[in-house]
Amino acid sequence: MRKVEEIRADLLRYIARERASDYSAGSLNELWEFAIRLKTELAELPASASVPFELHNLVSNVDFGAVRREYRSWVLDDAERAVGSLTL
Question: What is the DSSP letter of 64?
């Protein structure tokens, strides 16, 4: 079973992939699959897992590809900073 820290690390990897994405059909499909996996892993954590609200909120709202390109950099910067500041 995955741990909260592993999901946090995966979210940082997702953000890096989103940042490097060229938004081609293949790239978007990879991001979509990664996002689904993140959300599924978070949902499958046991009720006893202490998931910080910020992490739950970020994973629940993963859809950075829908952000206009001109805003993408600062949205991803903010998300990365938020994930990096979590104390688990």
Answer: G
Rounded distance, CA 33 to CA 81, Å?
23
Which is nearest to 2 in space by CA: 45, 63, 53? 45
pLDDT digits (tens, 9 = 90+) for 38-71: 999 888 888 778 888 888 888 887 776 566 777 7
Q: What is the pLDDT of residue 50?
A: 84
Tokens of 59: 């994973």
- The pLDDT assigned to 13 comes to 93
Tokens read off for 12: 């940082």
Residue with tokens 């903010």: 78
Burial class (CB in 10 A: 0-12, 13-18, 19+), 11: buried
Three-state DSSP state, 46 = coil
Using alpha carbons only, what angle is made at residue 35 by residues 51 and 20, rounded to the nearest 5 degrees?
115
